[in-house]
Specification:
This protein is α+β, with helices and mostly antiparallel strands. Helix content is about 25%, strand content about 25%. The protein has helices at about 30-45, 95-105, 125-130, 200-205, 215-225, 250-265, 285-295, 325-340, 355-360, and strands at about 20-30, 50, 55-60, 65-70, 75-80, 85-90, 110, 130, 135, 140-150, 155-160, 180-190, 240-245, 250, 275-280, 280-285, 300, 305, 315, 350. A hairpin with a 2-residue loop joins strand 8 (about 130) and strand 9 (about 135). The chain is globular.
């Protein structure tokens, strides 16, 4: 474990490139070091913030008054490969996500190919139930190895215990802060067919009778790059947290209300319908479409903060932005959607180091609200 450093700007550890300093920063290079660092900070009564790839994180300008632990544990172990039953692979929490996906694809193991190009670490994927292009990690996570902070006990949580939902899990809800995830075991499918459930991906691969896992991975990365959703320092939209708002999922009554508001707003072209997708008993809407039809087109900006020129769900730091400016701009977008369509979008990044008032800036300022 690295010696603790003081007052290093946390903006260097996040893809948004905003945020103040940490009171104390350590790097944990193994599972044991990670557990030890958390236990030490807990014993000292300090706040703890774990950072992996920093891709889904918005840190306030005042920084974090506690111990920040950079999770840098590495290791990928194949537990078994059975062409009838699957490949079980255990990955340490700090292992970078996309290289792991690339390894699975190279080995001919399906189950993660549509999740290519996503920044971040493997240990963070169960927390968010990371998903894209028709796949979620909930489909392949067998179990999560963790340590309970209050007792120091090692625990194993199976997929059902993780309580996965759309961009959600128990690690974000009732068990938030309870566990330290040290490793994740995935069950992949040797020789399995790639996932082509997502319409945009299927369209991009149209004409290929049986695309390989590698072709699906290449196509997903190309689609993401076209939306500035891969890490690229040369991209003008490169400093973001990815999708800033989640796609809302609504019950039938709420969907009917939103549909009526959309019709009344006159934002539909001739023969056009609001995009919607089945989500079990609910309906999922496109947050990007709602944002654009509320008047926030791609490239809209205020000073150093704006919407990506390639994807209306990404709020980008155009250079030198502060966290306060990001929050103010995001609030403006959110309130614009609320005012026009009556739906309060839910921010996706984790907000750390903000006052209660700053967090309250994401609450509706008035009017009716349909909450996803």
């Amino acid at each position: 474990m690295s010696a603790p450093s003081v007052a290093r700007s946390l903006s260097e550890l996040t893809t948004l490139r905003v945020g103040g300093p940490a009171a104390r920063l350590v790097t944990a290079s193994s599972a044991d070091e990670l557990v030890e660092a958390v236990a030490s900070a807990d014993a000292a009564g300090e706040q703890v913030l774990l950072i992996g790839g920093g891709s889904n994180l918005l840190i306030g300008d005042q920084g974090f008054d506690g111990t920040v632990i950079q999770v840098a544990s590495r290791g990928v172990v194949t537990e078994s490969v059975d062409f009838c039953g699957g490949a079980e692979v255990t990955v340490q929490a700090g292992e970078p996500w996309d290289p792991f996906v690339a390894r699975a694809v190279q080995n001919g193991w399906s189950g993660l190919e549509a999740l290519s190009g996503i920044p971040g670490s493997c240990g963070a994927t169960p927390i968010q139930n990371v998903g894209a292009y028709g796949q979620e990690v909930a489909e392949t996570i067998m179990r999560v190895r963790a340590v309970e902070r209050a007792t120091g006990a090692a625990v194993t949580l199976d997929g059902a215990r993780c309580g996965f939902g759309y961009r959600d899990s128990v690690f974000k809800r009732e068990d938030a802060g309870r566990f330290v995830i040290v490793a994740v075991r995935f069950a992949l499918r040797p020789g399995g067919s790639p996932s082509l459930r997502y319409a945009e991906l299927a369209k991009a691969l149209a004409g290929r009778a049986s695309p390989s896992l590698a072709e699906v991975r290449e196509t997903v990365i190309a689609l993401r790059r076209g939306k500035s959703m891969v890490l690229d320092p040369s991209d003008e939209n490169g400093h973001s947290a990815g999708s800033f708002f989640m796609n809302p999922t609504l019950d039938a009554a709420a969907f009917a209300e939103v549909r009526a508001r959309v019709a009344a707003a006159g934002v539909l072209g001739p023969g056009e319908q609001m995009p919607r997708y089945p989500a079990g008993a609910r309906v999922k809407l496109s947050a990007a479409w709602l944002i654009e039809r509320a008047g926030f087109r791609k490239g809209t900006h205020e000073g150093a903060v704006g919407i990506s020129t390639r994807h209306s769900l990404a709020i980008v730091n155009r250079g030198g932005a502060t966290a306060a400016e990001v929050v103010a701009f995001a609030r403006r977008v959110r309130e614009g959607v609320l005012a026009r369509f009556g739906i309060a979008l839910t921010p996706e990044p984790v907000m750390v180091g903000f006052t209660a008032e700053e967090i309250a800036a994401f609450e509706p300022s008035g009017g009716s609200s349909i909450r996803p």
